[in-house]
Amino acid sequence: MEFYEKELESIDKLIDDLTETANIDGKISKEEQQILDKIMIELGDYRALIFDVIDDGKVTKDELAQMQKFKSKIYEYVHDIAMHDGVLSKEEEGLLHKVKQFVDNTP
Question: Deepest of 1, 33, 48, 94, by most Cβ within 10 A of its Cβ?
Fold first, then answer.
């Protein structure tokens, strides 16, 4: 269960890192805000699943699959939004990098 407790901390860190990265130039664009909003929704659902796992004291294969699906969905959505205009800004590239690090961290 230690991994999942650390995963909750990773979610908080990811949110902070993403917000900081999106605001590097002193403003958050509409596209960057869309990315952040969607990630917050997905991370909220992911966090709820982790709390269920911690409360149960065990993780099932289905829950593991669901967790990976949440992570993949977050990355795919961020990538699609970032590439929507065909240009990957420095901030968007930073957002993608942070999300990729989060997604690659698995039990």
Answer: 94
Dist. CA 50–CA 65, nearest whole Å: 12
Using the CB atoms, write b or e for 50-74: b if 16+ within 10 Å.
Answer: beebeeeeebeeebeebbeebbeeb
User: pTM above 0.85?
Assistant: no
What phi and psi, each to the nearest 5 degrees, are found at residue 85?
-90, 5
Determine the residue type at 60. T
> How far apart are the C-alpha atoms of 53 and 50, rounded to whole Å?
5
Q: Determine whether 77 is exposed, middle or buried from the number of CB atoms within 10 Å of its CB (0-12, 13-18, 19+).
A: middle
